[in-house]
Protein 1
Amino acid sequence: MKVHHLRCGTDCPVGGALFDGFSKGLLGFIPCAAQLIETRNGLVLIDTGYGTEDVRHPHPRLSVAFRLMLNIRFRMHETALHHVKALGYSARDVRHVVLTHLDFDHAGGLEDFPDARVHVMEVERDAAERKRRGFVAKRRYRPAQWDNVRDWRTYGNSSGEKWFGFDAVRSLDGLPPEILMVPLPGHTLGHAGVAIDTGCGWLLNAGDAYFYRRELDSDRRRCTPGLRFYQRLIDTDREQRFANQERLRELKRAHGQEITIFCSHDGKELEAMQHGHARPQQDRGSRAKSMVEARV
Ligand SMILES: [Zn+2]
């Protein structure tokens, strides 16, 4: 299976390296990663980033608070739809969208693929529909992004099989068995990673289970203060988030040769995936890195 690593949106928060660990200016670089997979049965999109409607009408589709905090750059040429067309396909060729969760920076492009079947954990959809109380919950889930979805498929936690020690949902309805969801709750209640068997190794999109590449280091794990603050601000179950990060560290430690793990918002990781490197390159010459990272 061919996997394209896309950037479907960019956040540029004030704080630069305090967020991303490498920017030299005032603004940081936080991409919204998505993957487009070419399968025998059509295209599968993992997450959608910001969509064309977000670009056209950021207000009122997205909350003012998150737009200001993240300094979101809305660009038509970064939307998943634009990437799909640039690869010579049409929106209708995208038959399935698998979502790590329903946050505004992952579900924004759903309307651009109205014929797609949308796969998400049942708990996540319930939370997005029914539990929008509190400052963050009200602002993170934006029904306008997903209330036109016609073909939902939701999955319970109990239907799992084992995948490298994790409970995983296989047999996603209509999807090839090489694509499976791996529940990783914490950031949101129904947050999940997506594992892909490429035929030459596994990929694990860990979504927002972690935000910074060095959070998965076995020893001396580190995070920037900006991303540590942001993750704490919006996590739903901190205990589960930390527990799942630890499980991911263990997975990387034990199976790092077989599985490439990456998250949704690390610029260096995305760059490495786009260039076919399994590991992010070291930020050579970036003094900012050592100045802003802190042990976690
Ligand atoms: Zn996110």
Note: The pocket of zinc ion is lined by residues 103, 105-106, 208, 264-265 (CB under 6 Å).
Protein 2
Amino acid sequence: MKPIRTTRLLLRNWEERDRELFHRINSDPIVMEFFPFRRDRAQADAKLDELRGAIRRNGFGFAAIEIMATGQCAGFAGLSRPAGLPTFREGAVEIGWRLAPEFWGKGYATEAAQAWLAVGFGSLGLDEIVSFAVAGNSRSTAVMERIGMARDPSADFNHPGIGEDHAHLLRHVVYRLQRADWQTSL
Ligand SMILES: CC(C)(COP(=O)(O)OP(=O)(O)OC[C@H]1O[C@@H](n2cnc3c(N)ncnc32)[C@H](O)[C@@H]1OP(=O)(O)O)[C@@H](O)C(=O)NCCC(=O)NCCS
């Protein structure tokens, strides 16, 4: 992908120096509150390699967020194709994000997401972008609302990858944004 500059952020593909932060945001219990798994360092490294390869192949993906003023990696945001979720049509594209806690409360996820919407509706030519989160992950649904997405309760679903041992993480809510609604909000 071509790096994207926003007011405060550089959105770019993953680099070797991001591995420690990426492991932290895959293992920290606060960050991973709404996920049924934690990744150890080897698993996080493998996931970073997977994300980096997908971004190279597709030109988009869950990409690193770098704070331009300091050069620190804060986490990720980006576009991806949700796999194995029957609630979405074939070819659907989701927007998602995850930051280390010291970068919460600064508007970075919203700023990165707005730039990714412009990529999705601009150069990728998408008609719709979706997002989903565990019902109750209000920090994430607040980002969805701030970037203009609307809740679609008819699409809410029980995540097929979540077992009975994590029943509180089963129910997911869905948000959508159509290209026409994004354009009128500019
Ligand atoms: C979801 C997540 C990325 C949201 O982070 P966040 O910091 O709440 O969201 P933003 O980066 O958009 O920041 C918005 C907050 O910064 C504040 N803010 C401060 N300065 C700001 C600025 N210059 N511009 C915009 N907002 C600013 C906003 O008022 C808002 O604060 P509030 O939550 O008190 O209302 C983060 O909580 C996270 O990584 N969670 C764990 C992973 C996760 O659950 N991911 C989603 C899975 S579906």
Note: The first strand starts at residue 4 and ends at 5.
Protein 3
Amino acid sequence: MFRETRTVAQLKTQLVDVEAQISVLRAEQHVLVNELDRAQAPQTDASRSMVDWVQAHLDVKRDTARDLVFAARRFGHHRGIHGRMLNGDATFDRTIAAVKLADAGATEGDVEESYRRDLAGVARMLGHTKHVTSQDERQIFADRFFTIQPNLDESRYRMWGEAPGVVGRTIGKAICERADEFHRIAGDLPTSRGQRQLDALTAIAQDSLDGATSHESTSPQVTVFVDARQDNPTETTAEVEYGPRVGPDALERILCTGRVRVVGLDTNGVPVVTSPLGRAIPSAVRHTVARRDGVCVIDGCTSRYRLQPHHIIRYADGGTHHPDNLATICWFHHHIAIHQDGYRIDPDSPPLRRRLIRGSPRGPDPP
Ligand SMILES: [Zn+2]
Ligand SMILES: [Zn+2]
């Protein structure tokens, strides 16, 4: 049994027909992706964005995922273009090109004209058409949003949004400038651009909460619950009252900066020991240390941004509030490098040229 031989013309017709069917299916995917986007699907798993989510779940290339999400978000604004694809009259790639052209402010006539050109020709048209109409501007403005949402136990937050160009540039510039500042401060500490940008956003938020002129972070008075049955209470997770669960690093940070009360719980969750509020560094000591150091004491750092005293020997390891055990360090070195990235101050380094070293304070010192 042999298939009847098909002519090139027949094969071509069939090939084009299959592509049209693919396009119809793609158009249906746009509707689904649009609904998933509105349902904030990326939050249901570890995806950072809708593009990540589509890429992971469809097992497609990133460019394909990006085009799918782009079209899904834009088809509502270009129903004619999308309808053409839904009818099998335009391919996926053609539709993306036409939507981009329409988004760039091309007239309906120009978009129509683009269907008579090859895709490279449409790309050239796009280059010549970059102007945004006031109607587009209003739509872009109306589409603006920012969302920040915690996961169930509030150990992680996810944030995303969309902004008009000018707003995006303002936000981007503020974050980039602050991130670059941290990049200079960070020196040899390995941080990624993404990490620095989040650190920058955190600092900007902290400025807003504390007042931009304040040099010292004010942290709220918090109650931390620890498991009192354990020999080493800092190794357990703690719960800040009415707040997110925190790990041992965050706990140590709170002990370092905050006005804090620590409550130890027994097996039944009954408080068996409560620390006095005086556990935070007394303000006379804070002032003495601040005047003595004047600037971040980490070698090479000249930052005066949110200078704070930090315990060289951790409080949990028996370190005291004596000025000799306190070093003034900037927000970046304090919150990012030490309390979150796990560096610590080398106690043997000179008082005004402190070195950061890796490793557990309880383990042996590196040679
Ligand atoms: Zn500290
Ligand atoms: Zn510093």
Note: Residues 253, 256, 310-311, 334, 338-339 surround zinc ion (ligand 1) (CB under 6 Å).
